[in-house]
Specification:
The structure holds two protein chains of two kinds. By secondary structure, chain A is α+β, with helices and mostly antiparallel strands. Chain A has six helices and 13 strands. Chain A has helices at about 85-105, 110-130, 170, 175-180, 185-205, 235-240, and strands at about 35, 40-45, 45-50, 55, 60-65, 70, 75-85, 135-145, 145-150, 160, 165, 210-220, 220-225. In chain A, strands 1, 4, 5, 6, 7, 8, 9 and 10 form an eight-stranded antiparallel β-sheet that branches. Chain A has a five-stranded antiparallel β-sheet with strand order 11-2-3-12-13, covered by helices on one side. Chain B contains five helices and 13 strands. In chain B, strand 8 (about 135-145) and strand 9 form a beta hairpin. Chain B is about 25% helix and about 25% strand. Chain B is of the alpha+beta class. The termini of chain B are far apart. Classes of the chains: A alpha+beta, B alpha+beta. The interface of A and B includes residues 171, 175, 178 and 236 of A.
Chain lengths: ~250, ~270
């Protein structure tokens, strides 16, 4: 094979890089360290977003203190599920965006809707080049009294709604939200609703752990709680001796 | 010169002779026929006095709803009922078969059937077919030993649970159960939670829909509530009814062939007995 050698100084990840492998350039198509669901709901004073702090490496829970909720700018918070390293890359992109915006020094700053739009363009563009950022992002915030909550997936699908979830949350938490969410919930009601959904996820999602953070974004600012544990109940009588009536089975 | 000796009679079980031919057909673009599945949300719950089973009523063939109001709760014995998810033919036939076996067993033993009997018959059959009989069941009943609720998986494994969900809508239904289940519920509370779980499946899962069926099993009594809830009514029916007079469809051409000229009538003898 007479492949040309990459020369010193050439960026190896540029689209013009020569590859020593035969065939077209390919990028990683699967995630390694992943975060599970992120949940978000709008309430009376703003937006609540919650996630656990687990980073799974396949079927092991490898990292138990991964912060998957990060503020960006004054009005916005991003929560991510999926590949953690890609989320860290997204945070550097958003950091540059916010910095640039700040340097204009024009008294205005980016709203959550603007950041959502920017991230949609980034995700969709990378997906079209078969080099996706393997994440589903939940973006929420409050600016000028307007509460905003939206989602972008790794293929660039974007939408906004009163309650959102990523990954398993779509199957286990959304049905609860559709049933129990209503306009103008108080902070207590909203937190209780999120904790209810997080508990169900801890019971039924194998990559979830019982260590969660809830972020509260209001007009006053962003507040991310310290990680805490949810109350669980394993004491059902029926679990103590489940096959009492069917001896020999399980 | 090797030749197949005598054609041996089939030994029973599955015959995989046509697999290569089917694979070749599929490779050449012929689509395999779809089979009728019961997309489905099925649930079961143990309450203070017995067991409540619930199911939706949508049956799908690929992306089409082929039956808007099918029955997924099957009678097994006067005190035992079974919900079925998966391939409709498999759930129907496997529950039918065990129902017959149970009846014969009742005649032989002169006793009320027990849930564990139905459980063992179902799991033995399904295990023997290595998961090819695609039936996922929620089996519930009340017998002399008390109320019982089991799930049976296509490969033949079973679980004994206080509350259970199966089918494509099982996650939506389980989220309702996990957040609301309490031990020793009353009949009303149980019915409320079961129908809420089925509704969660109906409205959040595309494979489930239409109505809620309920079956409440208590000592000595089984209440089958067909279409307990109908949360998807037809929103508008024209009061005058629908009729399509001539002229609604454009007629492009007409050809009339009198059949009398094509047929010869022959007098004959009456058929023999």
């Amino acid at each position: 094979m007479t492949g040309k050698q990459p020369y010193v100084g050439q960026a190896l990840d540029s689209p013009h890089a020569f590859t020593l492998a035969p065939g077209p350039t390919k990028h990683t198509q699967y995630p390694y360290v992943t975060g599970t669901s992120v949940l978000g709901i709008k309430y009376k004073d703003g937006v609540l977003i919650a996630a656990d702090t687990a980073g799974s490496y396949g079927s092991t829970v490898r990292y138990k203190s991964v912060e998957r909720l990060k503020p960006c700018g004054k009005h916005c918070l991003i929560g991510a599920s999926g590949e953690i390293s890609d989320f860290q890359q997204i945070l550097t992109y958003v950091d540059k965006l916010i910095l640039n915006d700040y340097m204009w020094d024009d008294g205005n700053n980016l709203s959550p809707r603007d950041i959502h739009n920017y991230l949609t363009r980034v995700m969709y563009n990378k997906r079209n080049n078969f080099d996706p950022l393997w994440n589903t992002l939940v973006i929420g915030g409050v600016k000028n009294g307007e509460k905003y909550l939206g989602v972008v997936t790794m293929i660039g699908v974007q939408f906004e709604d009163n309650h959102v979830a990523s990954g398993f949350g779509n199957h286990l938490a959304r049905p609860i939200f559709r049933d129990e969410w209503h306009e103008n919930m108080t902070l207590e009601e909203g937190t209780q609703l999120l904790e209810k959904a997080l508990t169900v996820l801890y019971y039924r999602d194998r990559s979830a752990i019982n260590k969660v953070q809830v972020a509260n974004i209001t007009a006053e600012g962003i507040n991310i709680s310290e990680p805490y544990a949810l109350k669980t109940n394993w004491e059902y009588k029926a679990f103590k001796n489940p096959t009492a009536g069917a001896v020999g089975s399980w | 010169m090797a030749e197949a000796a005598i054609a041996l009679p089939p030994k029973g079980g599955f015959n995989f002779d046509l697999c290569k031919r089917n694979a070749m057909l599929e490779k050449n673009g012929i689509a395999l026929p779809r089979f009728r599945k019961t997309g489905t949300t099925i649930v079961g719950l143990v309450f203070k006095d017995g067991v409540i089973l619930g199911a939706d009523t949508r049956a799908t063939e690929g992306e089409i709803v082929c039956d808007k109001n099918c029955e997924k709760i099957h009678y097994m014995a006067p005190n035992i009922y079974c919900c079925g998810a998966g391939t409709a033919a498999d759930t129907e036939n496997v529950t039918d078969m065990v129902r017959s076996q149970l009846e014969l067993h009742r005649y032989a033993t002169n006793r009320e059937s027990r849930v564990v009997t139905a459980l063992t018959m179902l799991k033995t059959h399904l295990f023997g077919y290595r998961g090819q009989v695609s039936a996922a069941l929620v089996l519930g009943g009340v017998d002399v030993t008390g109320p019982h609720l089991h799930t049976v998986y296509p490969h033949g494994s079973t679980d004994t649970l206080p509350f259970a969900t199966m089918g494509s809508g099982s996650l939506a239904a389980m989220s309702v159960f996990e957040s609301r289940y309490k031990e020793d519920m009353t009949r009303e509370e149980g019915m409320e939670i079961v129908s809420a779980a089925i509704c969660a499946g109906i409205f959040n899962d595309l494979g489930s829909g239409s109505n809620v069926d309920l079956c409440i099993l208590t000592k000595g009594k089984a209440e089958y509530l067909r279409n307990y809830k109908k949360p998807n009514p037809r929103s508008y029916i024209r009061s005058k009814g629908y009729d399509f007079a001539r002229g609604h469809t454009a007629i492009l051409s007409t050809k009339i062939t009198p059949l009398k000229d094509q047929v010869t009538i022959v007098e004959g003898d009456a058929m023999e007995e």
